Amino acid sequence: MFPLSEPVISEIIFAMENQTEEFVLVASAQKGVSVVPFSSLSYDSDSAQDSGIRPEDIYSLPKWFSSDGFNLLESFAKSLCSSPVRDELLGVLSNGRGVFKNFKNVLKNHPDIERDFHRFKERKMRSRVEEWYASLRENWSQEKSADGDTLSLCLISDGFSFSRYDRKAESGCVESELRIFSEKKEDELKAAYPGDAGVLLADFWNIRSSCALGEIGGADGFVCRTASDDFVGCLLFSSGPADARESATLTTCFVKDGFHGLGIAERLFETCVSFMRGHGIRTFFVADFFMSESLEKVLFGLGFEKIHSFYVARFF
Q: What's the pLDDT tens digit per position in 135-163?
């Protein structure tokens, strides 16, 4: 099994975007992990054998077609709030000629939106890489849990680790942190909406939190921790039994104070969506209660659509 480090992820993404040449990942004891053009390999020759590269050391990269690139542009444009820039980008996409070049030209005139696009694009492509890596881990079947299920992907990025929620080991910690988070949220609502409105909203939030607390023991999901193993946040969802779970509903998602604005909630959603795509869950429902504008853009980028008071993602 090879490690999926930040430099390797960057190499993979760069290769995925190259539509003129095929690249592969080589992972060997002698050469380490690197992404190289497939044409540079000739493992049938004596020289290649001497280099320590074997056919089993070569991995095909996740596919990224021009249609994926177009869908990414369209998802980003639709995620923007109603504005002239959004209309201009959608107009470029509907033109049918010089789409990629003209899309970039529009972004150049709007540096802030261009910066948001590059972040959006990286998250989208990283999600594809992580999904591919999770699939490889399952095929290797190196780690087994007590009930025989293959352990899910655990990635370390920017000093934080994202791993599968362990009900037995972590339910107590998650419950404690959720209570603290909920109490602070109630105080914030009362401060933001003085009088009866704040009390009513706080009560509504309390009911929602009580439901989430009641479902922690049977929930699934992912947890984020620091490099020193301190709890940072989590995303939990509820679903049916393993042989019939075609849909899932968000139970809770929160990040501790002091770690906001680092993209942790975004990574939790991205990791969760990648997991669901590979485990037979076809629909994911997320209620819009106090959904932030920035996180809403993330959901749209992951393929969610707004239906009444829910964000819904369908996986086929």
A: 776 666 444 333 334 333 444 445 688 89
CB atoms near residue 112 (< 10 Å):
9
Token duo for residue 29: 């004891």
- 302: nearest Cα among 281, 265, 273: 273
Tokens found for residue 117: 């696009």
Domains and their CATH numbers in the chain? 6-60 (no CATH), 66-138 (no CATH), 152-314 (3.40.630.30)
**CA-to-CA dists, residue 168 to 65, 172, 209, 224, angstroms:** 41, 8, 20, 16
Looking at residue 105, its pLDDT comes to 93
How do residues 41-94 score in pLDDT, each as one tens digit?
Answer: 765 545 445 455 777 788 889 888 888 899 899 988 888 876 788 899 999 999
Three-class SS state of 43: coil
Counts of helices then strands in the chain (DSSP H, E)? 10, 11
